Amino acid sequence: MALASDLSGLWGRTNRGHDEKPLNFILVDGAYRYTSQERFVFENGELSHTIDQSVKMTKSDSSALTGTVDFYDSRGCSFKNLAVKAEFQNEDLINILMTVPRYKHVTISAGPHGRRRYPVYCWDYYGQRYTCGYDWRTLPPRSVTTECRLLEYVEVPVQLERIK
Asked: What's this model's pTM, rounded to 2 decimal places?
């Protein structure tokens, strides 16, 4: 029989979907650890980005755990040491409150902005080139960078049940 503070093993969200993978907590150096990766894909099926999550919790009293969660976005965003708390309802049911960042991945273009007029050339009957009009083209940026803009931190409750 598992103790009401033993998080080791397989767990699933109480409202999980049929294809959702179970969470597997392992005990290493007195701390329960779990890592996962969420994949985000475009409508055409190509991978957009991934978010890796790493959770580390230790016992704070007989029925509670406290710790941290780190988020790593493959586009370059990372948020570390966010709070996570867990409380056992019984040996097979645990409530977790996890701090999660809400952020926006932004692309920033620097350089010339606007449009530029380019001549359009035509040739006459004798093969002479002349300007017969103008084409307006958007100037390309000199540099493109990205950044992660933090919007807020929110606490997300999750209920897990032990998978036997």
From this structure: 0.73
